[in-house]
Amino acid sequence: MSSSTSDPTSAPDVAPDSGQRPLRILIGCDTFAPDINGAARFAERLAAGLVQRGHDVHVSAPNQAYRRTTPRTEVIEGEPMTLHRLPSVRWLPHDWLRFVWPWRAKHYARKVLDRVQPDVVHIQSHIVIGRGLARIAHQRGIPVIATNHVMAENILDHSVFPDFINLPIIKLAWADAARTLKLTRAVTTPTRRAADFLEKTIDLTGVIPVSCGIDRTQYFPVIGPRERNRLIFVGRLTAEKEIEVILHAMTKLDPALETTFDIVGGGDQRKKLEHLAHDLGLDEQVVFHGRTTDEELRALLSRASVFTIASIAELQSIATMEAMASALPIVAANAVALPHLVHDGENGYLFEPGNADALAARLTDVLTADRAEFERMQQASLDGVVIHDINRTLDTFEALYRDEPLPE
């Protein structure tokens, strides 16, 4: 990622891919590069894809320090866009999370909207930055699209507070979310299940499921058996990912399989997981790669035998889609949105969340499959990820921005 000063009002006269006037789009995010998480990655790819289609893209996101900055060009996913970084503070219990003071959100929204004068605002969160932008944009008659990446269930599952504190806070938070989302032209979320959940949680109808999408051409599927049995997980090393379940499952695999496990990503649980791997006698089998470049990640995916994910808090899982685009069978927890991607017995298997014995059994099914069965699962992953192509996602959001009928 690089940066330089630029004229934030510059834009091409015609969007080259559509023949229509390009739009000036303001994307509001509470998490964005250099953060590494699903919501940030989606916003980055969305913004980059819109730039590729000729639109003038601006992003309002937290700065990496509590200081004011002028708008500047940053290169995200290989594409230049204008970033409006807002003063933010770090949430100390978390290893990377930063946030803008909520009582300053409307003030910053006014300043950014004054500067950008967007055709449409697309918020990625109803929490702080998105909340402020939605309210001020609505006052000014600027259409707002909202994408929800948050499920209250995830917060409750991992809160350190008792229910008598959690429940009133969550109730108030969803009430505020409802007020924000009702100011929008359209609300989207990555899956049908997440859309149903949101409609049931707040008094809202017509939530549109739109996949986060990936660019399948950036991955290198290799059909056929592997020389070695290699498991891989990609994602943040946080408690809700339940990576310890995979480590325990490793100890239950037949030693004759000589299975290794690549863990790609950083997070606050890394040291704990390293200690657990040592205590389980897995030092020679498990490699913690930390954060890698995109090129390194794609190489690791291409050589792996199976992608495994034990998470109980996935709203969609871009990492799983990346693995599918790399032609990997998937073994995943039967939780939240993962069953939307993993069809049991087709492109892999589902297992009961938290059950290391069940996970080991399903991993064994993949690792001991004959060549024809293994390649069938690989092809099923490739076939299944087609509907998540980023161009379908971009087509849908362009239609929403222009208030046009949605594509099929």
From TrEMBL:
Biological process GO annotation list?
carbohydrate derivative biosynthetic process
Q: Does the keyword Glycosyltransferase apply?
A: yes
Q: Which PANTHER family match?
A: SULFOQUINOVOSYL TRANSFERASE SQD2
What GO MF terms are annotated?
glycosyltransferase activity
Name of this chain's protein: D-inositol 3-phosphate glycosyltransferase
Looking at the record, the residues that make up the Glycosyltransferase subfamily 4-like N-terminal domain are 36-216
Stored Pfam families: Glyco_transf_4, Glycos_transf_1
